[in-house]
Design a protein that fits this description.
- The protein has a single domain, classed as Glutaredoxin.
- Helix 3 crosses helix 6.
- The N and C termini lie far apart (about 65 Å).
- By secondary structure, it is of the alpha/beta class.
- The protein is globular, with a radius of gyration of 20 Å.
- A 6-stranded mixed beta sheet has the order 1-4-3-2-5-6.
- About 45% of the residues lie in helices and about 15% in strands.
Length: about 180
């Protein structure tokens, strides 16, 4: 009886420990406007930030969807080395899509792919503010690399592959460690 009670207590404690362990890379999906996005990027002159990759994409964009698995795989490797990874979805910038639909589309895509990554869904009247602030060409996909000082150190316009993402990650991290 005492032995059975001991086993029950050990198993109960073990299962409690498992449920309290959390993944340090929990994903969040949220809708942000231009000001909120710029605050999250923290690229103001003199601001200290983490080296980061920023990928612009949408679930309705075939080249974006095609490159996202490579982006996820490569960026997951470099996150463990201190690289911050952020994706910005344009799913809500389509006039007939509601906020709830955009959130559902992005979450469904992440779940379908098995991706655990942060996604900010961009919401603004147009693309002028974001394109001007980050000197974006307009079309997606687009991936930017920033160093720890918030300076852009690389970009790939259009569909990218693993080699491109490795190069951007190395640039962001290398410039962070040389200063």
């Amino acid at each position: 009886m005492k032995f059975g009670l001991l086993i029950t207590c050990v198993l109960a404690c073990a299962s409690c420990g498992e449920s309290s362990v959390s993944d340090p890379f929990e994903a969040t999906v949220e809708i942000v406007d231009f000001e909120q996005l710029m605050n999250r990027l923290n690229l103001e002159a003199g601001a200290k930030t983490e080296p980061m990759l920023v990928n612009f994409w949408a679930t309705w964009c075939p080249p974006c969807v095609a490159e996202l698995p490579d982006f996820y795989q490569v960026s997951s490797t470099y996150r463990q080395r201190g690289l911050r990874v952020l994706t910005i979805s344009y799913d809500y910038m389509v006039p007939e899509v509601s906020a709830d639909q955009a959130l559902a589309n992005v979450r469904q895509h992440l779940e379908w792919q098995g991706f655990l990554m942060d996604v900010l869904i961009y919401d603004d009247e147009d693309f002028d503010s974001i394109n001007g602030a980050l000197k974006l060409p307009g079309p997606i996909p687009l991936t930017l690399a920033f160093n720890a000082q918030g300076q852009e150190v690389g970009r790939v316009e259009g569909e990218a592959g693993p080699r491109d993402f490795h190069d951007l990650a190395r640039r962001a991290l290398a410039t962070a460690t040389t200063r």
